[in-house]
Amino acid sequence: MIAIGQYNTLKIARFTSVGAYLTDGEQDILLPTKYLTRDLAVDQEVEVFVYLDQEERPVATTLEPKIYLHEFALLKVNFVNQYGAFLDMGLEKDLFVPFREQARPMEANKRYLVYMYLDEKTNRLVGSSKLNQFLNQTPAPYQSGEEVDLIVSHITDSGINVIINEQHKGLMYKNEVFEDLRTGDRIIGYIKNVRPDGKIDVARTPVHFTLKVDKLSQKILNELEANDGFLGLHDKSHPEEIKDILGMSKKAFKQTIGTLFKRKKIEITEDGIRKI
């Protein structure tokens, strides 16, 4: 069965004036002439993406789409009409997002995070920005410290909402993230905590690393307090000097003052660090 919205490995059955017909042994589908290369031959296997053309007929392409079936992607709106929005999915045909599937009214030339699914009634590929309905609502099997793939879904005052492994909803707290993240960004994160209510807290860095940095940060802040808010240590200080004063390696010192700087706890000068 040829799968729409996904890559398929098919065999060339025959060539015609309009292209090559590919087959999975049961169904034939057209790969238009513009996607053919001279080295192709009958019975040769090719990997193609299958979607519906302007007349809603299955067609194959060698172009790489920006989104796949049952996946999320940040796409740009090409235009909006009385039926809905049409988003650039990297193919000759746009991805249709009807008004009923828009979390908020979409505007031309703006980008939105959407999910692509196959409409059971029409057998058409459709997009939706109402993402929660496509996330797994069953209890998450994650363990604290587990590395996961994240997609930034939206950012609020309380934190950065993410999609974990394209399945579950998670949250990163803003005061724990020290980089400029935007909707659609794909990053690596770590499970911090799975709460009893099923909500998932996610960290940008490994939990053990965060705990270590927090401990060393407090040590540096305590030392600053004991020295009128200033320490004559910086990234060019000798490792032994850092070890004698703080009892930590130069690498750990640089990582920790970097974190403190991002948290706006210290300022770094040419001759040392100063508490803010």
Quick rundown:
The chain has three helices and 18 strands. With 276 residues, it is mainly beta.
Question: What strand line-up does the widest sheet have?
Answer: 3-2-1-4-5
Strand composition percent: 35-45%
First-to-last CA distance: 64 Å
Rg result = 26 Å
Helix share of residues?
10-25%
Q: Specify the structural class.
A: mainly beta
Q: How confident is the prediction overall: mean pLDDT?
A: 90
List its traits.
five-stranded antiparallel beta sheet, 276 residues, mainly beta, 3 helices
Report on the architecture of this protein.
The chain is mainly beta. 15% of the residues lie in helices and 37% in strands. The protein is built from three helices and 18 strands. A five-stranded antiparallel β-sheet has the order 3-2-1-4-5, with no helix packed on it. A five-stranded antiparallel β-sheet has the order 8-7-6-9-10, with no helix packed on it. Strand 4 and strand 5 form a beta hairpin. Helix 1 crosses helix 3.
How are the SSEs placed, and which strands pair?
Blueprint: E1 7-16, E2 19-23, E3 28-32, E4 45-52, E5 58-61, E6 72-80, E7 84-87, E8 95-98, E9 111-118, E10 125-128, E11 147-155, E12 160-164, E13 168-172, E14 186-194, E15 200-203, H1 207-226, E16 230-231, H2 239-246, H3 250-262, E17 266-269, E18 272-275
Antiparallel strand pairs: 1-2, 1-4, 2-3, 4-5, 6-7, 6-9, 7-8, 9-10, 11-12, 11-14, 12-13, 14-15, 16-18, 17-18
Helix pairs in contact: 1-3
